[in-house]
Design goal:
The chain is α/β, with parallel strands linked by helices. It has a single domain, classed as P-loop containing nucleotide triphosphate hydrolases (Rossmann fold, 3-Layer(aba) Sandwich), CATH 3.40.50.300. The chain has 8 helices and 12 strands. The N and C termini lie far apart (44 Å).
Length: 262
């Protein structure tokens, strides 16, 4: 097991950011995530939830105007704000998109092997040939209950919403990130697809990784129980608590928290 010596895997201090040349969106975020933890970030539309994940991942449309974001790895701490997006990914950061992109003409298998070998090289390992990779891929397909036919199709082309989200979880399974940021993986899913995606995330949790779930609704948390829940409004966290906070949001909505924070 990796030894983080009691340090947070991810530490965010007074993070402030905006769309380039736009008004402030994040206005001072503080957050610490320990190995093995799952955090849920909730809030109404426009509160800054997706911006938070994109800024951590290094999306080029955003400008950081203050604060720090540090990722702890077995090789030491990395200042994510000084790293390029591909460097953040190689350090163990994974972003599951709300709307995954289609890649016509590239099979899912080819895409997954390229991503897997890129991360393998970054971790000082030899890339795998197609047969070696297929053995690992088959294990992950079986773990997640995904048909092998799924990997022969072009990446996300003509995939349903549920299939796109399950493909994100398959990528996560293969890349084994230290920190996974899952941006509204419940968006547009029916109950069966939501349950399948949630079960996949649950199977991939270990004492050495961490997950951040960004969601509007408590329904995802019927299947995944976070250690901490943070409510965001107007670019800051206005309340944090345990999984029962999400249940309270489901019963009472956001207004009672927004009004008490005003």
């Amino acid at each position: 097991m990796m030894n983080y010596k009691g340090n947070a895997m991810l530490k965010i201090e007074q993070l402030k950011a905006r769309v380039k040349d736009g008004p402030p969106i994040l206005k001072g975020i503080d957050l610490e995530i320990l190995p093995g933890e799952m955090h849920a970030v909730m809030g109404p539309n426009g509160s800054g939830k997706s911006t938070l994940s994109r800024v951590i991942a290094g999306h080029p449309d955003y400008e950081v105007t203050g604060g720090s974001v540090t990722l702890q790895t077995p090789d030491g701490s990395i200042d994510l704000l000084d790293a390029e997006p591909h460097e953040r990914a190689r350090a163990g950061l994974f972003l599951g998109f709300q709307y995954p992109m289609e890649v016509p003409g590239v099979s899912n298998r080819t895409f997954l092997r390229a991503a897997f070998n890129t991360i393998h090289r970054a971790r000082g390992r030899m890339p795998l040939d197609p047969l070696e990779f297929d053995r690992i891929l088959q294990d992950k397909l079986e773990l997640l209950g995904i048909s092998r036919e799924f990997i022969q199709r072009p990446v996300n082309v003509d995939f349903s919403g549920g299939e796109k989200k399950r493909n994100e979880i398959l990528q996560m399974a293969l890349l084994e990130p230290r920190l996974a940021l899952l941006d509204e993986i419940d968006s547009g899913l029916d109950v069966d697809a939501l349950k399948a995606v949630a079960e996949g995330v649950s199977k991939l949790r270990t004492p050495d990784n961490a997950v951040v779930l960004i969601t509007h609704y408590q329904r995802l948390l019927d299947y995944l129980t976070p250690d901490h829940v943070h409510i965001m409004s107007d670019g800051v966290f206005i309340r944090s608590g345990g999984s029962d906070l999400a249940l309270e949001i489901e019963e009472r909505g956001y207004d009672w928290i927004l009004n008490s924070a005003a």
